[in-house]
């Protein structure tokens, strides 16, 4: 598409050219370069209209209009000066030579401005410019200095504009046509008319923030640029000539031209075509809201007001605006009211008063006659709402009735009756609960007694077993001790017998009479030491022994006769 001086006035600038420097790179159809074509939005089937393509009057070939390149402002001024001189007009740059000792000072990085007979003269070399000879200043006026890096300079028909990365300059050319310069600049000298700098816009901090009137979410920000125009009566009026938009991520805008609509993705954009208007800004994220409904009549003609919870996400804003809705809430509200009216019309007051909230977490067991209608409220309403929302480009993610309020005299009367019935039910439930508690207490006491009896039996068994075990242990101990004692006696006796045998054998081996005599005397001494020196020993052989035996027999016979007589 070739764009020259014959540009259509209906062309819209959206996310327009950065500058007029690189004309070949800019003279093409442009949509905002920050928009990723692989993004979800706009979705398949949504076409971008012709009016969202770029056209810019700055791309025209203009006389005495030079873009500012890498060589800076002074180089652009020199090019315009040569163009003016080549066309037979007065040059733009002054021929004055600076000195260092007196005069008006032009510091480095600044331009000196001189008005010469209504025409501009520019001093580009730093230094001092004296006020004499007078012929040098005849019909000339010193107008001060301007910085080379100033965003906008306007002086006697000369216009210098240079903007940074985040700025955009809105310019009106001598024919009052509007163009925008971004991330660059230009130097122009208007022979007929003027180049007016209408505004320098900070594209990330626009003046007006747009919020969703329902959810309060920030949808984006806009700024309207106006131009003053004088009409026949001499009165000045302001007209909007450009609209800047800053659309955050996950949001979008809808533009309108006649009956055509276009989706504008997130990013920084501007519009200069008066035939294109902003239809609205929309968020593509999830939204949730509690919404009251209008009064709905139950099957027994009791009015009830519901408070519902909605959660949705807009995925195709073009469908929504095509149906004439400005917000997703407006589309969902009407459809929700219609579907809930149809469902509640089949419910009785008595069945609804039992159900405080109607949602996915409030399921019935199926025995209540009204549960079918409550299930319909949860399932059919959700299904129908989901299907209806898709027609408007909306996905309905959740729907629940979180509260209801009955109204009217009938509701008041039935509320009293229902309250009394509920009170009776509560009292009966309390009696049942008390009886159940008493039964449980008795059962608990019985269980405690049973456990105590079992505990005592266990303890008695344990004690009896302990006694038996102790007796067995004692008997076993006595037996072991007796056996040990008998074994000890036996061993002692055997040892003594063996010792006696050894001593006897030893004594038998002694043949010396003197030694035997000495041994007998030692035995006598030992016996006396054992029994004492007053002991009388009876001989064990000879006549004494026989007499002792006779006396013993006689005493025994006497004792026997005495016992028999008694």
Task: Give structural notes.
- This protein has about 575 residues and is of the alpha+beta class.
- Helix content is about 35%, strand content about 25%.
- It has helices spanning about 25, 75-85, 315-320, 330-345, 350-355, 370-390, 410-510, 515-530, 545-565, and strands at about 65, 105, 110-115, 120-125, 125-130, 140-145, 150-155, 160, 165-170, 180, 185-190, 195-200, 210, 220-230, 235-245, 250-255, 260-265, 265-270, 275-285, 285-290, 295, 305-315, 395-405.
- The radius of gyration is 62 Å and the shape is elongated.
- The termini are far apart.
- Coarse structural class: alpha+beta
Helix content: 25-40%
Give Rg in angstroms.
Answer: 62 Å
| Beta-strand content bin | 25-35%
> If you average the pLDDT, what whole number results?
78
The total of beta strands comes to: 23
Distance between the termini: 168 Å
- Total DSSP helices: 9
Write down the overall geometry.
elongated
Low-confidence segments, given as residue ranges, are: 1-49, 356-367
Strand order of the largest sheet: 1-11-8-7
Largest sheet: 4 strands, antiparallel
């Amino acid at each position: 598409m070739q764009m020259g001086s014959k540009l259509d006035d209906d062309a819209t600038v959206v996310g327009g050219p950065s500058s007029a420097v690189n004309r070949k790179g800019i003279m093409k159809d442009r949509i905002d370069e920050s928009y990723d074509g692989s993004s979800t939005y706009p979705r398949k089937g949504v076409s971008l209209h012709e009016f969202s393509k770029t056209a810019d009057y700055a791309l025209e070939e203009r006389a005495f209009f030079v873009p500012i390149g890498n060589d800076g402002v002074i180089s652009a001024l020199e090019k315009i000066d040569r163009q003016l001189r080549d066309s037979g007009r007065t040059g733009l740059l002054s021929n004055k030579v600076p000195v260092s000792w007196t005069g008006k000072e032009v510091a480095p990085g600044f331009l000196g401005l001189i008005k010469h007979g209504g025409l501009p003269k520019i001093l580009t070399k730093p230094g001092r410019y004296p006020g004499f000879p007078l012929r040098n200043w005849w019909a000339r006026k010193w107008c001060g200095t301007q910085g080379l890096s100033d965003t906008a300079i306007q002086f006697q028909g000369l216009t210098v504009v240079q903007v940074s990365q985040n700025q955009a300059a809105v310019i009106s050319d001598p024919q009052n046509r509007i163009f925008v310069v971004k991330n660059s600049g230009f130097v122009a000298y208007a022979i007929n008319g003027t180049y007016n700098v209408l505004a320098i816009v900070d594209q990330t901090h626009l003046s007006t923030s747009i919020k969703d009137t329902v959810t309060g979410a920030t949808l984006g920000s806009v700024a309207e640029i106006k131009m003053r125009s004088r009409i026949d009566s001499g009165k000045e009026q302001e007209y909007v000539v450009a609209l800047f938009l800053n659309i955050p991520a996950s949001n979008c805008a809808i533009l309108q031209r006649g009956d055509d609509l276009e989706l504008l993705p997130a990013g920084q954009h501007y519009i200069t075509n008066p035939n294109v208007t902003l239809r609205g800004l929309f968020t593509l994220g999830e939204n949730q809201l509690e919404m009251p409904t209008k009064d709905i009549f139950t099957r027994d003609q009791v009015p009830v007001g519901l408070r519902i919870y909605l959660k949705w996400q807009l995925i195709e804003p073009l469908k929504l605006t095509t149906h004439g809705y400005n917000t997703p809430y407006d589309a969902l509200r009407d459809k929700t009211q219609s579907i809930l009216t149809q469902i509640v019309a089949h419910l009785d007051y008595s069945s609804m008063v039992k159900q405080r909230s109607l949602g996915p977490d409030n399921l019935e067991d199926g025995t209540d006659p009204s549960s079918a209608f409550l299930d319909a409220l949860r399932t059919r309403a959700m299904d129908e709402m989901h299907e209806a929302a898709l027609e408007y480009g909306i996905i309905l993610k959740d729907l629940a009735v979180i509260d209801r309020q009955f109204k009217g005299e009938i509701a008041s009367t039935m509320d009293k009756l229902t309250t009394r019935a509920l009170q009776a039910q509560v009292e009966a439930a309390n009696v049942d609960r008390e009886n159940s508690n008493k039964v449980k207490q008795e059962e608990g006491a019985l269980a405690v007694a049973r456990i105590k009896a079992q505990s005592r039996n266990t303890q008695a068994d344990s004690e009896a077993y302990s006694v038996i075990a102790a007796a067995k242990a004692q008997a076993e101990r006595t037996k072991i001790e007796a056996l040990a004692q008998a074994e000890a006696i036996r061993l002692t006796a055997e040892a003594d017998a063996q010792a006696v045998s050894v001593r006897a054998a030893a004594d038998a081996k002694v043949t010396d009479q003197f030694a035997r005599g000495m041994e007998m005397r030692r035995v006598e001494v030992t016996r006396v030491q054992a029994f004492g020196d007053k002991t009388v020993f009876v001989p064990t052989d000879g006549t004494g022994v026989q007499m002792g035996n006779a006396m013993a027999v006689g005493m025994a016979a006497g004792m026997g006769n005495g016992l028999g007589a008694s």
